[in-house]
């Protein structure tokens, strides 16, 4: 389980695979200087609610992975996440869509 730390005060646990995909989308938005909302459903252990952050290029953000290996990237999922990030409601952590073959491995067969 990795951790997203925002503004050195808020730490949120995400699976390393989820975190890798979020890093790609959030990084792309911040490189363009874009601020946006990021929303996800909370784990049932902390109340089963929903959380939202205002992501801004000037606020520190740390992606800390539990594992040492880079997860494979699902381009379809990145595109789905980016589509939500570019909407008025902001980035929403949507479930990973199923993929087959090379697409599931970032375009490379394993």
Automatic annotation (TrEMBL):
Stretches assigned to the DUF7882 domain: 1-96
Could you tell me which species this protein originates from?
Agromyces tropicus
Q: What is this protein called?
A: DUF7882 domain-containing protein
Q: Name one Pfam family in it.
A: DUF7882
Domain of life of the organism in this record?
Bacteria
Q: Which InterPro entries match?
A: DUF7882
């Amino acid at each position: 389980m990795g951790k997203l730390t925002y503004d050195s005060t808020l730490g949120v646990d995400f699976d390393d695979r989820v975190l890798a995909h979020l890093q790609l989308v959030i990084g792309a938005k911040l490189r363009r200087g874009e601020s946006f909302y990021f929303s996800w459903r909370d784990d049932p252990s902390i109340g089963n609610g929903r959380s939202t952050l205002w992501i801004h290029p000037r606020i520190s953000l740390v992606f800390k992975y539990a594992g040492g290996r880079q997860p494979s990237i699902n381009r379809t999922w990145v595109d789905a996440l980016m589509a939500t990030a570019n909407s008025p409601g902001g980035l929403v952590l949507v479930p990973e869509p199923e993929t087959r073959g090379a697409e599931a491995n970032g375009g490379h067969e394993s």
